[in-house]
Here is the input.
Amino acid sequence: MVEWEEELSPLVREKLAKIGDAIAEEKVRMKELNNLNSLLADFFTDRLDSEGLYKRLKEYESQGKQFLLQEAQTKLKGSFKEKGLRIKFEEADEYRLTVQLLEEEEVNETVEEEQRGLVLELTADNFDEAVGKHRLLVVDCWAEWCAPCRMVAPVIEELARDYQGKITFGKLDVDKNQSVTMKYNIMSIPTLLVFKDWQLIDQIVGATPKNQLEQQLTQYIE
Here is the structure.
């Protein structure tokens, strides 16, 4: 013990010792967070697969390092890898997260279900109702046999996710709903029908690239 510490009261020495312990604990905590960031960087750059990341996160769970699981959950949720992520976090109780590894089939089903929810399935029976319900509605007119339509489909799904709450997207199979096809004089597909304030204001024909289509559609957002 250094000389100046000998002159301190026992209470002050105890407080200093606690401060020292807290600083040491914080250093350990920061080191572990840095290690987690390196782990996630490997995952984001595909140097580590989902199973490898899951094993490390499971170790954190067994060690009771909830702050690392919470940090991992936050960074994975906001990342470009969130869609299709096989790692699932669940709240076991108010203060504890657990980690699960999903099968690829489960993930694919979840993604497809989310996409179906974002893009409305329109038919001749519900078409007018959809037009009357949504202030800005974009309808993708397509068919199973149409190759360009398959190119447009993922673009529509991405835009539906990106502009959720601002633009509503729907899909209409022209072969199964020819009354709508005739009403709007759809001569070729893919064709996008753009309705604003319940009126048809634009028709976009052909497989338009995402950035161009996005520019065309966002001009109608108020």
